[in-house]
From TrEMBL:
InterPro entries: Cro/C1-type_HTH, HTH_LacI, LacI/GalR-like_sensor, Lambda_DNA-bd_dom_sf, Peripla_BP_I. Pfam families: LacI (PF00356), Peripla_BP_3 (PF13377). The keyword DNA-binding applies. The keyword Transcription regulation applies. It comes from the Bacteria. This is LacI family transcriptional regulator. Keywords: DNA-binding, Repressor, Transcription, Transcription regulation. CDD domains: HTH_LacI (cd01392), PBP1_LacI_sugar_binding-like (cd06267). SUPFAM superfamilies: lambda repressor-like DNA-binding domains, Periplasmic binding protein-like I. SMART domains: HTH_LACI (SM00354). One of its GO terms (molecular function) is transcription cis-regulatory region binding.
Amino acid sequence: MPQTRPRQTDVARAAGVSQATVSSVLNGQASGRRIPPETIDKVERAIRTLGYVPDVIARSLQGMSNQLLGVHTYESMFPIDHHDYYQPFLLGIEEEAEAAGYDLVLFTSTRDEEGVRRVYKNGSNRLKVADGCIFVGIRVDKAELRRLAAEDYPFVFIGRRDVPGVDLHFVTGDYADSTARVVHTLADLGHVRIGHLQQRDRDEPRQDLARGRRRGLADRGLPAVRPVVVDPGAIGPATLGGLLDSRVTAVLVDNAVQAAALGKAARAAKLRIPADLSVVVLQDTPPKPPAARDWTCLRMPRVELGRLGVRLLLSLLNGSAGAAPLVAQCGFHPGATIGRPRTI
């Protein structure tokens, strides 16, 4: 006959106390109910001896804390490679959760029959196993987020997300301010016409990058060059030729994949980066050695954003969260892909 898991009644019997006493010890209420230290010690010894583990589902239904934080994404992104884009976020989440004494639950079984991950798979909210949840990734389902917010379930996004009618809690990088500073750096080198290769998917953080570019140009009184919206696979000689025809001497690119495609097109055209065209990557990707080029780039504070996400979620759980998002400062890596323009 298979062995059943120990229950609170088993712990109470082994410790020689009531089940109510066991429940008080498990819920951290022993001191408030004046349970003697020696009784607490007996209960804890019985728990260790029997290998008792609380039923997290039952505790959640009773509104108790499970000391569990969830991590959910609408896309497949849980990495095994330390060069992966998302791995630093998870590293920061893990470090901060461990420091706070919480365990993590990675929600990976929420994919529906159409292959799309859902919070409400089969109509039920699996996230409620955890006390609250951190969302990571680009894709979102705003209808689900509205429903989740209406349930008062605590959750935090890494990256700014806007859902009309819902006050979402999020942590973000100072993307607009950092991009404006990049434009200032290029202007100080003598660049006047600064282009922008934008990814077609314009999520909120990328909107912040574009806003920072516009602000930086306005700060220095530089002309606004129309951005080029292009996916990495479509970047080629025509893209490069269009930039040069518009007399651009420096270009911002949203990510390292676009930069690599632009670099390949430049080599084919026998153009030198940065002698003929300066390039700055606005959202870096952790490099895979050996790196083909030392791109000048903004360093997204991924580890810090993971940490801030946990801190904000914990403040929601204890009722101390403010209305303002938590913001981490991006770093700037000088790299080797910017210089003075061809002509000043």
